[in-house]
Structures are given as C-alpha cells and as structure tokens.
Design brief:
This protein is globular. The chain has a single domain (6-95), classed as Winged helix-like DNA-binding domain superfamily/Winged helix DNA-binding domain (Arc Repressor Mutant, subunit A). With 108 residues, it is an alpha+beta fold. The longest helix has 19 residues, at 80-98. Helix content is 53%, strand content 14%.
Length: 108
Amino acid sequence: MENLSRSEEIILLSIWNLQGDAYGVRILEKLKEKTGTAWTIGAVYAPLHRLEEKGYIESRPGEPLPVRGGRSRVFYRVTARGKKALAQAKAVHDALWANAPDLGWKEA
C-alpha cells in the first residue's frame, strides 16, 4: 500500500470523522475546523478524486436538494482499503514521534 500525501490523509480522516455525512461543503467545514485553515474546493476535490481512484473512498449521489433545480450532493465513505491506509499512516506517525526529541514549546 502506498503512502498517503498529507492532504490525502487529512481529507480521508475528515471523511472518516464525518461518518456518513461527508460531502463537499461538510468536508471543507471539517477541514477548516480542525486545521484552522480555509481550504479551497480545488484543494479538496483533486485529492478526493485520487482517493477514489486508489479505492480508499467510494462516492454516491444523494437526493436532490429541496430547492427548485436543486443539485444532488455527492457523499463519500471510507472503504476497507481506506481504513487500512489510515491505520498505516497512524502507525508511521506514532513510530516517528515515539522517540522524537522534545520540540521545546508548549501549547497555550
């Protein structure tokens, strides 16, 4: 299994955290909430496309919005392969941080 890019990992983890309510706008909101940075649509949809091509997520159309001409949302869910990729990424982070020297700063 190949390593995830940082943006792929963060987006995949956001989808996992949203558990069934992961669509474009909600993913953007979750990313802003957790990273403190406003992400652009393009910065999210390009990695979403790659994640789907790799088999880490699946998409499905939702019901059209109840407004005239309302578009359907596309919902994303993490696949078993995606869960395995997240577990692998966490294991790598944990292993690297386990014996890392103290950074010398404290959060406020």
